Automatic annotation (TrEMBL):
The lineage of its organism: Bacteria, Pseudomonadati, Pseudomonadota, Gammaproteobacteria, Oceanospirillales. It catalyses: tRNA(Gln) + L-glutamine + ATP = L-glutaminyl-tRNA(Gln) + AMP + diphosphate. L-glutamine binds at residues 65, 210. SUPFAM superfamilies: Nucleotidylyl transferase, Ribosomal protein L25-like. Its main location: cytoplasm. Residues 338-438 form the Glutamyl/glutaminyl-tRNA synthetase class Ib anti-codon binding domain. Belongs to the class-I aminoacyl-tRNA synthetase family. Residues 458-534 form the tRNA synthetases class I (E and Q) anti-codon binding domain. This is Glutamine--tRNA ligase. ATP binds at residues 33-35, 39-45, 229, 259-260. InterPro entries: aa-tRNA-synth_I_CS, Gln-tRNA-synth, Gln/Glu-tRNA_Ligase, Gln_tRNA_ligase_bac, Glu/Gln-tRNA-synth, Glu/Gln-tRNA-synth_Ib_cat-dom, Glu/Gln-tRNA-synth_Ib_codon-bd, Glu_tRNA_lig_a-bdl. It is found in: Cytoplasm.
Amino acid sequence: ETKAPSNFIRQIIDRDLAEGKNDGQVVTRFPPEPNGYLHIGHAKSICLNFGVAESYNGSCNLRFDDTNPEKEEDEYIQSIKQDVQWLGFTWNGQEKFASDYFDRLYELAVELIHKGLAYVDSLSPEQIAEYRGNFTTPGKPSPYRERSVEENLALFEQMRSGEMDEGAAVLRAKIDMQSANLNLRDPILYRIRKKVHHQTGDKWVIYPMYDFTHPLSDALEGITHSLCTLEFEDHRPFYDWVIEHTSVPASPRQYEFARLNLNYTVTSKRKLKQLVDEGHVEGWNDPRMPTISGLRRRGYTPASLRTFCESVGVSRADSVVDMGMLEAAIRDDLNQHAPRAMCVLNPLKVVIENWEGGKEESLTAPVHPQNETMGTRQVPMTREIYIDREDFREEANKKFKRLVLGDRVRLRYGYVVRATDVVRDDSGEIVEVRCSYDPDTLGKNPENADDQGKLRGVIHWVSASKGEPCEVRLYDRLFTAANPNKTEEGQTFLSHINPDSLSVLDGCWVEPGLRGVLAETRYQFEREGYFCVDQSSSADKLVFNQTVGLRESWPK
Ligand code: ATP
Ligand code: MG
Ligand code: MG
């Protein structure tokens, strides 16, 4: 295994370990909110958190950040676990829910009230926002800020017991209404939400805010390095304040890194959910989605996503990564590891006139031309075969390295054939090419001295009588704009959706060895690109998703 490249987070950990901090322990966590499926940005955070834990013999908890009872669903929890495991990481039983700590969080809030560091505010949400001020105006104190400890305890108990309506009051930290950091202007710790929670049921009608829950969950789990994205930088002073003023057993530290952004797509769960809900895609795992499950269905391997995340690196500089880099990662992986197969996407029938009617020959081909250890495969040759329409022309100059009327090509792994005639339908379209084959050309070049000219090239093909029909789905970018989030007035990111991101080719033919292959099996279709068996594929109907082309070919 190659050692992960260093980054500023690893340097901080190295320094902490050298100074003997945290008893030499490294404990991280990956804390998704279960309100959607994970996307490629989350993969970066997963690789960082689990990767750091792995390298330092530490551990990484999977923690569901489920403080918001309204948006969270069990389907998301299951998908998140599946995606993390699929990426190749394990949390060693350390599966946590922020809601596991609701009792403890409540006690710690009461502790803050006792210390005179929290109060119940009865201002309306609008008034609270107004009193808080903004970057240019200082905040002003709520008239309820100086309530006594006893009064605050009694009111907080009323909030908890359900005696108060939603919005009637909140619990706030008492910090500094003049602070230049808006997050320190008496942030809200608890609000009333009369909602059933998927883990705690109807036990609670008050729910802790994310900014209060997160540092405490970290501390209660003994997290040493709490890694999050840069938008939380301004929240760090409050994170530290919470740790400092509550009696928790550990002092985790928060470090921020830049989010991963990819061009030609969106990485926001809210936007991805909108694509799903409004039917712009088939679901969260549509192969065009930048979700982990979508990339998986598209044909990406866990290794390719880990390699990609590693090559993107971890820094504090915001940037947009080119989609081509993600594609390069899977192309490299599949080029090395994917078995080869022949699939004809736009079939044109070829009849070999000097091949006996019922004769079938089994040709031997390597599974991977550069890797003998992957063995060989058998490909049936028959009188009628399919080639790709693009691989035949009646006339062409010498640059066309495919079949031309009167000229010869080699059928990959098979014989040399010469095109002798064409058959047309009523509209004049060519529906068949007539050929002759040279029986003495299997694995060797034609020897006859009177043969004019060289072979034009080598083309792929599939036996018409023995081949397997299949459907192939080709994909283009889901958005036509490099930055779909950038919109003119009256537009949304949906204005940039590419209407032609999916083309379904029915009536393709693949070599018969692929009959019945399982979903997620990946191939290089020779001369066409990389493809993966779709989950909808069955013994009756094979369906393939195009993963990526053979070469970088975009923009077209
Ligand atoms: P979204 O904006 O898509 O809803 P989020 O940050 O709200 O993302 P969470 O479920 O809270 O989603 O994310 C879990 C973890 O993954 C957090 O630590 C978050 O910082 C990290 N994360 C989310 N998006 C990215 C990204 N694009 N790049 C790197 N890390 C990310
Ligand atoms: Mg979040
Ligand atoms: Mg979010």
